[in-house]
Structure formats: C-alpha cells, structure tokens
Design brief:
Blueprint: H1 2-17, E1 21-28, H2 31-43, E2 49-55, E3 58-68, H3 70-82, E4 88-91
Antiparallel strand pairs: 1-3, 1-4, 2-3
C-alpha cells in the first residue's frame, strides 16, 4: 500500500514538473491582421490568446497558444505547419 502511495505521488510530481510549451504566432499592430489570424486559428481548431502591449508607443497584440504539454505541443505545431502558419516556441 505504501508503495502505491509513493508511486502515485511521484506521478503527480512529474506532472507538476513537466515542461510547458507556449507557441507565439506573432505580435501585430494591425487589428484586422489580428482578427484574420485569430479566425484562421479558430477554423483549424486552435484557441488563440490575445494580449495587448505598448511597443514603441504603438498598441500591439501578441497572439499565443498554450501552454501545452509536450504531446499537445507537437500536435499543435504539426497542425500549424500543415496550414502554413509561422510560429515561435516559448518554453516555460
């Protein structure tokens, strides 16, 4: 019984310590470009996160996906590649 408890806690700890991957699609100043990219991502089944920032005095929007574990990250980048969408990996 004690062994099962240790193994169970070890698996939970591994899940907590697992690397998370964030995929950045880009940073855009043009609102219509953001809407276009968000729509394209939605059509292929991905949910984009939009964050607004001031960059050099201009309002910009950063588009990201995730965080994902490694398996979901790999599936996501394959989907992006199949749809000719450029991306950058941000590993947390």
């Amino acid at each position: 019984m004690y062994k099962k408890y240790i193994e169970s806690n070890f698996q939970k700890e591994n899940i907590k310590n697992e690397n998370k991957y964030i995929v950045q699609i880009g940073i855009f100043a043009n609102k219509s470009e953001v809407d276009k990219i968000k729509a394209k991502l939605t059509l292929i089944g991905l949910t984009a996160k939009l964050n607004n920032y001031l960059l050099n005095g201009k309002l910009t929007t950063k588009i990201t996906l995730g965080p994902y574990n490694k398996d979901v990250y790999i599936k996501t980048i394959k989907l992006l590649q199949m749809n000719n969408i450029e991306y950058f990996l941000i590993n947390e």
